[in-house]
Structure formats: structure tokens, C-alpha cells
């Protein structure tokens, strides 16, 4: 209720400027932009025309005093073409680019690279050079990582599941690379959200051949025999999880009487694309991969694994996973905040490519360092550790999404909250699989490199 000391003001006039581009090919014009300005007008007579005068400050709201709302529309011909109508919102100028978070992330990458080069590469190179100067294995002082050369490539437990995750991660990586490249070349645009999502799903399906190929090569190296079941899991496990989550979210939306959920027609198209293109391509890639020779290890592997020495608490698997995820998350924390903010306010943020590159570099470096750290402790169980170390970034992503929800968003209703956490769960699972695969391949390359550099008979 208004008190005597309080005053309220209002703008009672809206001025719309609609820009249109006259197309000579089509023979008519199409709207390419608009502006809206609000200000106050004082009218001598609301029924009279041409008696409008501006009022500054805005019109005061008084008790028992009529307020007349007006508007005017002006159409202006514009040189902006229909295909360039979103450039005002999509193109980023220099003063809009968040240079500080970008430079902060790059400095973290340089710092991690310097630490890794100084603490690891130099020491490892000198050690291998001195080791190869010895004439026989008996003359070598076998300690640390070189002592477990016959066990470092022991096949991991649940190797089938690891192959499925790696194959899915390769499919994700191929999709992201093609999406970024297509966006840079102008083939994809964020202005058409529905078309962009359709193109991303299509690229995901096409990358199924590479996911199946990577899974098959790794599974054959692990001496796996049930390749049909493993291929089917690769083609259906993650897409099935995402489909179930989206379907549940749509049911929640429909239960509220809203039509903003995914229509049944679009859902049927996605399922048809999944079963008609993605699954066959995964099987084709798997077939090609199984026809290839298995990956050879640089050293021989004992049939009976050796006992792993008791590890200290700071070398535990849980701690390694926590450290492996929190370092990359901290490196791109500012970029993550900007990403959530732009999405929450329906804006565009075009630094995803750089953020992903920074994440990949940091995850590779951290995972390799953690792998070497545990190998020096004679713990050769690096297969799953390498995947989970980088993949834990997905957990921190969901944790930050939860923090952002309760501290920055003003969502009090149940359904919007369910939708938010549902989509964040999908994004977190995708990030877990993607970064875990990158960490796994980086450690696979690293272990093959260091053990192939040592002359071991």
C-alpha cells in the first residue's frame, strides 16, 4: 500500500522500430530486427490525435488519476540480410570477450606444463638414458615403475565396461570436434537451436563407426570374446540413459499441461536416427576393428600378477580421483561461471572451444602425472584410475551446477528444478565419459612410451 512519502513513476509509452530487408528475389520484405524504447508521454486529450508531448521525468502514479498507455510503430528498411539477422547478438566484440578468465585458464595450463616438464620429463629422460647404458637387466637397480614392467599391462577388472566407456568417449570426441569445426566454417549456427541440436545428434550418429572401432580394438587387446554383446552395449548404454532421462523430463513437463516438451514426432525421429544410423555404424566400426590385429605391448606380461605393496593413504584411489578432477575444474572455474550465467540468461557464449581445449590439456597432464606417481609406488592398476581421474571432472561439474542453482538462480518451483538437474545430469555424464576417455588414452600412450624406451628383455 502506498504511503504519503512514497512516489511511483511509470513509462506509459512504447516506441517500436521494426527493421526489415526487402528481398528482390522473393519480392517481399522480411523482418530482420526490432528495437523497443519506453518513455513517458503527457496527453492533453486521450481522444485527440497529435496532442502528445513528452514528459520528463516519467509520469507519476497518483491516486484516482487515469493513466493512458500508448504505443507507436515505425518500419525502417535495413541493409541487414535475412541470413545475418542474428549477427548483432552472436558476434562478440573485443570489449565483450572475457579476457581475464581466458588468460587465467591459459596461465594454469602453462603452469601445469612447466611443472610437468620440470618434475617429470627431465627426470624421466635422464633416468631412461642412464638405464639404457647398462648392459644387462641384472645390473639394473630395479625399483619403482621399472620393477613392475611385467605387470603394468595386466588386463583390468571389468574390461568390457571400460571398453564400452572408451568407445562412447571416442564417439563423443569426434562429435565435438566436428561440431566446433563446422561452427568455425559457418555450417552450423546457434541461432537455430532446433537445427543445431539435430545436426549434433546427426554427427553423434555418424561418429558411431569410430566409437565401435575404438571399442573393438581395445576389447580385442583385452582378449575379449563376446564382441556382439559389447558392441550392443556401446551403441545403446549411453544413448539409452540420455533417452530415458529426456523422456522422464518430458513426462514431467506434460504432466504440468505444458507443450514445451519434445514432441512425439521429434522423439520418434531421434529414435529412428539412433536405431537406423548410429547402431549400424557402431557395429560396422566394431567389425572393422575386430579384423585389425590387437595392440601389442612393448613388454611381456606375466600370467600371474604380482602382489601390490601396501599403499599409503595419500596414494589411495579416491584421493587420486578427487585431485584429478578438482585441478581442471579450478583452472576453468571462471569460464564455468560465465557459461552457466550466459545459459541462465539466454545469452550466447562462444568460448566453449577454448574451454574444452584447456580442459583437455590440463586433464592429460594431471592424469599422466598421477599415473607416473602411482607407477613409482609399484601400483600397476592404472587402467581404470586413468579413466576415473579425468572423468571425475563430470562430478565436479554437477557439484558446481548444484551450487549455482542454490546461490544464483531464483527457482522455487519443483518442475523447473527437476528440468535443471535433469539436463545437468546429462551434461555431467557426457563430460565424465569424454574426459575419462581422453585421460585413458593419454595414460595408455604414456605407459607404452616409457616402457618401450627401456631395454628390457
The percentage helix is 55-70%
What is Rg?
Answer: 30 Å
Q: What separation lies between the terminal Cα atoms?
A: 90 Å
Tell me the structural class: mainly alpha
Number of domains: 2
Summed up, the helix count is 13
How many runs of DSSP E, i.e. beta strands? Answer: 7
SSE arrangement, N to C? EEEEEEEHHHHHHHHHHHHH
- Weakly predicted, low-confidence segments: 48-52, 135-141
Overview of this protein structure:
With 457 residues, this protein is mostly helical. The protein folds into 2 domains: 78 residues, no CATH class; 359 residues, no CATH class. 58% of the residues lie in helices and 9% in strands. It has 13 helices and 7 strands. The strands form 3 sheets. Strands 3-2-7 form a 3-stranded mixed sheet, with no helix packed on it. Strands 1-6 form a two-stranded antiparallel ribbon. Strand 2 and strand 3 form a beta hairpin. Helix 3 packs antiparallel against helix 5 and helix 3 packs across helix 13. The longest helix has 39 residues. The chain starts with 7 loop residues before the first strand and ends in a 5-residue tail after the last helix. About 3% of the residues have low confidence.
Please specify the SSE layout and strand pairing:
Layout (H helix, E strand, L loop, with lengths): L7 E3 L2 E10 L6 E11 L1 E3 L8 E3 L4 E3 L8 E8 L9 H4 L8 H34 L26 H27 L7 H14 L1 H14 L5 H29 L8 H28 L25 H15 L1 H12 L7 H25 L6 H9 L1 H15 L6 H39 L5
Parallel strand pairs: 2-7
Antiparallel strand pairs: 1-6, 2-3, 4-5
Helix pairs in contact: 2-10, 3-4, 3-5, 3-6, 3-13, 4-7, 5-6, 5-7, 6-7, 6-13, 8-10, 8-11, 8-12, 10-11, 10-13, 11-13, 12-13
Amino acid at each position: 500500500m502506498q504511503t504519503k512519502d512514497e512516489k511511483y513513476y511509470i513509462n506509459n509509452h512504447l516506441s517500436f522500430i521494426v527493421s526489415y530487408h526487402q528481398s528482390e528475389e522473393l519480392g517481399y520484405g522480411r523482418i530482420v530486427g526490432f528495437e523497443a524504447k519506453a518513455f513517458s508521454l503527457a496527453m492533453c486529450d486521450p481522444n485527440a490525435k497529435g496532442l502528445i508531448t513528452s514528459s520528463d521525468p516519467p509520469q507519476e502514479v497518483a491516486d484516482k488519476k487515469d493513466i493512458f498507455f500508448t504505443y507507436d510503430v515505425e518500419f525502417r528498411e535495413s541493409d541487414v540480410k535475412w541470413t545475418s539477422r542474428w549477427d548483432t547478438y552472436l558476434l562478440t566484440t573485443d570489449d565483450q570477450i572475457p579476457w581475464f578468465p581466458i588468460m587465467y585458464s591459459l596461465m594454469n595450463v602453462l603452469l601445469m606444463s612447466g611443472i610437468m616438464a620440470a618434475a617429470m620429463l627431465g627426470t624421466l629422460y635422464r633416468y631412461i638414458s642412464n638405464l639404457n647404458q647398462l648392459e644387462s637387466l641384472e645390473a639394473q637397480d630395479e625399483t619403482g615403475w621399472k620393477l613392475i614392467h611385467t605387470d603394468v599391462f595386466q588386463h583390468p577388472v571389468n574390461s568390457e565396461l571400460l571398453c564400452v566407456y572408451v568407445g562412447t568417449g571416442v564417439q563423443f570426441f569426434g562429435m565435438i570436434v566436428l561440431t566446433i569445426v563446422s561452427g568455425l566454417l559457418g555450417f552450423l549456427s546457434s541461432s537455430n537451436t532446433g537445427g543445431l541440436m539435430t545436426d549434433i545428434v546427426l554427427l553423434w550418429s555418424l561418429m558411431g563407426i569410430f566409437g565401435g572401432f575404438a571399442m573393438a580394438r581395445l576389447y580385442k587387446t583385452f582378449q575379449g570374446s563376446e564382441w556382439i554383446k559389447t558392441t550392443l552395449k556401446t551403441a545403446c548404454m549411453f544413448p539409452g540413459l540420455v533417452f530415458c532421462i529426456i523422456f522422464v523430463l518430458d513426462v514431467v513437463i506434460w504432466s504440468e499441461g505444458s507443450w514445451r516438451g519434445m514432441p512425439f514426432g521429434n522423439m520418434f525421429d531421434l529414435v529412428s536416427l539412433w536405431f537406423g544410423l548410429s547402431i549400424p555404424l557402431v557395429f560396422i566400426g566394431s567389425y572393422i576393428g575386430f579384423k585389425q590385429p590387437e595392440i601389442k605391448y612393448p613388454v611381456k606380461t606375466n600370467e600371474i600378477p604380482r602382489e601390490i605393496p601396501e599403499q599409503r593413504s595419500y596414494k589411495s584411489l579416491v584421493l587420486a580421483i578427487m585431485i584429478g578432477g578438482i585441478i581442471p575444474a579450478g583452472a576453468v572455474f571462471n569460464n564455468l561461471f560465465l557459461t552457466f550465467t550466459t545459459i541462465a540468461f539466454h545469452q550466447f557464449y562462444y568460448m566453449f572451444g577454448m574451454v574444452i581445449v584447456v580442459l583437455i590439456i590440463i586433464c592429460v597432464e594431471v592424469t599422466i602425472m598421477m599415473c607416473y606417481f602411482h607407477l613409482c609406488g609399484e601400483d600397476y592398476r592404472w587402467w581404470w584410475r586413468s579413466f576415473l581421474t579425468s572423468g571425475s571432472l563430470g562430478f565436479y561439474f554437477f557439484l558446481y551446477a548444484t551450487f549455482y542453482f542454490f546461490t544464483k538462480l531464483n527457482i522455487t518451483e519443483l518442475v523447473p528444478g527437476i528440468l535443471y538437474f535433469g539436463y545437468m545430469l546429462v551434461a555431467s555424464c557426457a563430460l565424465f565419459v569424454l574426459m575419462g576417455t581422453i585421460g585413458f588414452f593419454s595414460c595408455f600412450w604414456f605407459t607404452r612410451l616409457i616402457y618401450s624406451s627401456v631395454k628390457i628383455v
